[in-house]
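Render this sequence as a predicted structure.
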Amino acid sequence: MTLLFSKKRKAGLKELSGAKKYLKHLHCNLDLPKKAVICPLSSLTKYALSQGQFEHYNCEADIYVERKKGFSYVTGFGVGAPAMAMALEVLIALGVKEFVLIGLAGSLQPEVLAADLVLCDGALADDGISAHYVPEEFIRPAAVLTKKLDGVLHRASLDHHTGPTWTTDAIFRETAEEVAHYQKKNILTVEMEVSAFFAICTQKKVKAAAAFVISDELFRLKWEPHFGEKPIFQHLYALYHAAVKTLTSK
């Protein structure tokens, strides 16, 4: 006997509250640009803010608006799919229509090394959020926006891998058996937000693309961290500029 309501059925149902009603309750009526770079990492904020003239707002996330360039930089909402979901729903309710997510990920494949860039072309949903929005377990980003980001990376001579990610909520429960399984499925990376990001954007009919810098390696079936190393930050800065250019260029 199962007590849980069917997620496959739920994906097509209308919510009781929703972000727009929530914002009305908060009396929040921010006027945001239609495009946003979204990043779970607080460590990138200082650099990002040095690259423009930003107005700061807070509504379930730190929202930095660059009016002249026509985009927002969003961070400070926490880590993982549930935190991503609340911030993303609010941003969409405030009128954002295009998102590029940038962040860190772990490598599952021996050819994908620390500080490498990865353009994400799909996400395997092993999180607790995605199934509330779409019934599929493998979720794609917006093809046109992803292709545009790919082109920006190429023109900037930023070598990168392209492939899918495994999204999991349980950061401390990644196992050698799972890594070996996903290696055989040609999954390149593991992280904690992207399947929820793609699922929500798909259900809300807004555009999403995502790319990462590799911060740790798991392909040897052990955890090898490289957080804080200089090449990782350098590639994060480059990825930030690529994301902004993807959203703001014609």
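Summary. The domain at 28-248 is CATH 3.40.50.1580 (Rossmann fold). The chain has a mean pLDDT of 96.
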